[in-house]
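The pair is set out directly below:
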Amino acid sequence: MMNKSIYILLVAGLVLASCAKEGPALMRGSYSFKTGGSIEITGKLYETALDTVRIDTVVHTVTIMGIPITDTTYNYVTKTDTVSVRDTVITRRLVTESGQMHILEKSGDKMVLTMNITGGDPVVVQAGVSGGTITLEKTGRFVPVHDRIGVAFSYHDLQLSGSGTRYDNMIVFGLVYEGDYSESSFEGTVTASRINCIATQNE
């Protein structure tokens, strides 16, 4: 009977320990993270052409030794005209970001996630936890996005959301960006995201 009682207590203890690691307790902690991927933007591409237009004519007449000499000057201006507009979908790669992430408890299943991005602005996101999944509420941030060639980049004001699942000492996030997007000769809206964020818990 004694051995059976001890066995029951041990099983109960393991169950309680397992439950304690669900929800906020499972996610809480300090992590090192790295994120990257791409976004798809649906919009309109404006194709333009340069057109040179003469705006005025200036005539100068001078008399030299009784002979009138006329000089004519033409002034021009270069204008950019929109030749055509067409619907298109473009893909842009995000600048890879890394840094430190902290996930803090608020109350109940509510948490706060902070991302201290190396060389970038800090990001604070409200989140909720259910079991082994953390869900990020929408929050605005300026996102660095590579240009078409992939050399230079510019910042775009987009909405961040997504969710992450805990595996061993990691949280694997699938992130989503939404919002309006524009660059030279193109305006559109982000319609798809392929973005991963890997957060590894610090020792």
User: Anything to note?
Assistant: The chain has two domains: 24-43+89-201, 46-87. The two ends are 42 Å apart (CA to CA).
